[in-house]
Known about the structure:
Mean pLDDT: 96
Number of strands: 20
Protein name: Cell wall anchor domain-containing protein
Number of helices: 4
Order of helices and strands: HEEEEEEEHEEEEEEEHEEEEEEH
InterPro entries: Ig-like_bact, Ig-like_fold
CATH architecture of the largest domain: Sandwich
Strand order of the largest sheet: 5-10-9-8
Structural class: mainly beta
Pfam families: Big_3
Amino acid sequence: TFAEFKAAGGTISGTVNTDKAGTYTVTYHLNGFEDSATVTVLENETSVAAQNVTLYAGDTWSEKDSFKHATDKTGAELTFTEFKAAGGTITQTVETEQAGVYDITFELNAVSDKATVTVLLNQTNVKGENVSLYEGEAWTEEDSFKRATDKTGAELTFAEFEAAGGNVTHEVDTSKPGVYTVTYELNGVTDTAVVTVFVDQTRVSAINSTLYSGESWTEAASFQLATDKTGTELTFAEFKAAGGTISGTVNTDKAGTYTVTY
């Protein structure tokens, strides 16, 4: 054995520097006999490169995202999977839910590289606002949208909110009185608003009038009563101020039957 060879007075000449590529000769001597061997030290072409990554709290991240490239001892390029299969190791303490700067180190064959993972504060914010209307009135999702900001804290219009991936869920039916919930969501942040649809209590009542030609008549004379959407009684002046209209003409100088619609 090698141990017995040395115990019997065997000697070895020649040196090998394993840190330096080259061809080295080693000679073994015993009792006047010798033999030589060649030790070839190849260049170790292992390389590892990591890359810095910036994300926002709550974003998805994996170790692969910070891996740029690697080569093995022969210089062959390695995928992330091959890097790990070749014995590559990774040390990191990244917490994607907490803002901060984290180190991650990739190592293969004693060659290493370090990168940082910067987790920024997620400033996403969404705010809805309650809306009340009467049945039959127009309503859009934008009407209950108050404000939103993206991850960077930039203010978003409703169109920008939608373009950024914002979602709106609701079952609002303005033709049916009721209380409806509208939920706005962006980047996992949500807010809820209420849309209340009231019964439309608008009512208009006219009365028939009879007069003789030449007598005076006004539109107010055939107006009996009206209520607005809230059910509040309106005078004729209030009826007109509220947008009430009157169609039809009456010629009091000519006998006949005329229709007036309020």
